[in-house]
Amino acid sequence: MNKFLTIFKREYLSRVKTKGFVIGTILTPILLIGLSFGPGLLFQLKSEKVRHFAVIDMSQIVYDELVKALDDTTSTGEPMYFLEKIDATEENLVTIKDTLSKLVDSHKLDGYFVIPADVVESNKSEYYAKNTNDFKSNIMYQNIISQIITNYRLKKSNIDPQMIKMLTQRIDLKTFKIEKGGKEQEDRGFSFIITFIMLFFLYMALIMYGVFVMRSVYEEKTSRVVEMIVSSCRPFQLLAGKVLGVGAVGLTQYAIWVSVAALLTLYAGSIVAMFAPAADFPIPTIPISVLVYFIIFFILGYLLYATLYAMVGSMVNSDQDAQQFQFPVMIFIIGAFFLAFYIIRNPDTTLAKIVSQIPLFSPITMFTRISVQSPPFGEILLSIVLLIAAIIFFIWLAAKIFRVGILMYGKRPTLPEIINWLKY
């Protein structure tokens, strides 16, 4: 027991005391949240740049209405859009466009619109600018011009545009998630984002910490350090010490993240009110039970896959061999992650129920079902029992391979050789 604890402490402390662990524990959730929400928030930021446009309106329909539509102002009250009408005919259109393009190229003009005379019939218009990657603005310009032409057609047909707008007004469909006990909570898609973030953490943990175990095993094996270690302890003690030591590192990290998530869940309303008092959107919360199951399935999933990775590490002698041998293990983790996207939309289907009970998939697939729409407790309990049984089996299997493979050097073992190890 003392030898196991020595290996456990070495594996744990050698990682927890590093700057990488501290920085990763702090920055990883910040980075992931930033990648999830940052692009959308930045895309919504309003530019304060004043823009000068020229409008070649050969239809004589669009310009005046376009000026009215683009009446936005900056924070200082200055008009954000200045539009200059340019008269043109079919004969001099090319020359005028060439002149305006040179002004855009020299940054004296931000862009220009060309509205052909037959815009009502052709449904075509043109926009020229130095930067055409501002999709939000491009769509806004297109919608404004489309609405102007639509209103013109309605008026020509003696139909009131305001009446059409009222009759065709879109309905706002609010979505509410019914949780256990019949409790209702408005959900605008935030639960999907939260589920995806937690799934991604679980997915990365199973791969990352499993690889840590594998590398630790085969690096000590190739450096012959393992020969000195196994001379003073049993191979199973070494296997258990490495698996549980690295697992404790992951558990420490995830316990910190889960604690922060729990605090944010309890005080989310107060935190948002401090930064956005007038915010009118539902605050997403994570049920404490989901956080508890997150820890449970992280521990069980880690024990399962770390054991398999340790087994792989004992069989290989180089990075190249490790990459090839770990692929059969990784394919189950990757497969479970992709199945999770199906389960998010269909948590109660037969396929979802089956894959959430298969131990190599269940750490991710059953947790997905729990976070989306919690299944009956009996199904959760069965999944946990099957997962524990699989862990016991793989530990027995890994121990038999580990005790032989850890001292095998030279060529990569073949499948018949591995089977023979199991018979020793």
Describe this structure in words.
It is a single chain. This protein has 424 residues and is of the alpha/beta class. It is built from 17 helices and six strands. The relative contact order is 0.09.
Count the domains.
2
Helical coverage, percent range: 55-70%
In DSSP terms (H or I, runs of 4 or more residues), the helix count works out at 17
Which whole number gives the mean pLDDT?
A: 77
SS content category: alpha/beta
Would you identify the regions where 5 or more consecutive residues have pLDDT less than 50? 275-279
- What is the H/E string? HHEHEHEHEHHEEHHHHHHHHHH
> Which value, in Å, is the CA radius of gyration?
31 Å
Classify the oligomer: single chain
Strand order of the largest sheet: 2-1-3-4
